[in-house]
């Protein structure tokens, strides 16, 4: 199967591309390199382009005889989405609409969409199931939910078979620790903490230590990038039988901020300054996933559930690439 990976030069997209190539698929990467890295694309054709370029999308889908699309290309920073909401509506919603329009024009119907747990907003209970209310509280979550709705109606019209995968916190380095996380600027806890352990930042901040959790810090659901990518492959294959799939993808086990910090210290053997700061607006005490639906319907199994394993692969990658990807 020839698969177009939109955003395939990014963290998750590059790992997904590597998995597809290893499994005998023919991936083609489409990325504007605004946040992705050309050197992260291996064993795949590469097209540099933007989702706003409808004609290029048409040419790419046609030239490579694309049979399915996996869509990772999006803006992902919650805080930024509040400050510049129109950027998120343009990239996440208008970009997806343009991609779906090009797919319809060429006759490509299989679509796997990278969604987010942010579509749930502030949950009324945890763990979060796919039936939990979708009440996003920021433009990032809102644009992802709106894109899901667009896919739903396109499917209802008989023009799309799609899977929407709602992630929690993806981490680690995949492809035998060869493809890691390199956001610029970085905002995710594990790579930030690793940079503190490497001496490349002065400290790591813990925002809030008085939550109603065992150690007072927020608890989040972390999933290894390898497990996440396998779920995408299973969902892609499931589209032969279903037109609309929605799954949560999480580890179903939460780890606190303090546990993450201590795990980085243990894996790295390094000590570093930890600063306890006040709570951030909007943070909730616990966010964990119920992924039973993906396990039951896809046969998906978490193979790398331990936080130490997730941190260890990330530590390996960051030490080999202290400045990130060369480009």
Structural class: alpha/beta
Strand content: 15-25%
Major beta-sheet overview = 7 strands, parallel
Quote the average pLDDT: 96
Provide key terms for this protein.
2 domains; 327 residues; alpha/beta; seven-stranded parallel sheet; Rossmann fold; UDP-galactose 4-epimerase, domain 1
What does this structure look like?
Helices cover 39% and strands 19% of the residues. With 327 residues, the chain is α/β, with parallel strands linked by helices. The strands form three sheets. It has a seven-stranded parallel sheet with strand order 3-2-1-4-5-6-10, sandwiched between helices. α1 links the parallel β1 (2-6) and β2. The longest helix is centred in the N-terminal third of the chain and has 22 residues, at 85-106. The mean pLDDT is 96.
Per-chain topology:
Elements: E1 2-6, H1 11-22, E2 26-31, E3 45-48, H2 54-63, E4 68-71, H3 78-83, H4 85-106, E5 110-116, H5 139-156, E6 161-167, E7 169-171, H6 174-177, H7 189-197, E8 204-207, E9 219-224, H8 225-238, E10 244-249, E11 254-256, H9 257-268, E12 274-277, E13 286-287, H10 292-298, H11 307-320
Parallel strand pairs: 1-2, 1-4, 2-3, 4-5, 5-6, 6-10, 7-9, 8-12, 9-13
Antiparallel strand pairs: 9-11
Helix pairs in contact: 1-8, 2-4, 4-5, 7-9, 7-11, 9-11
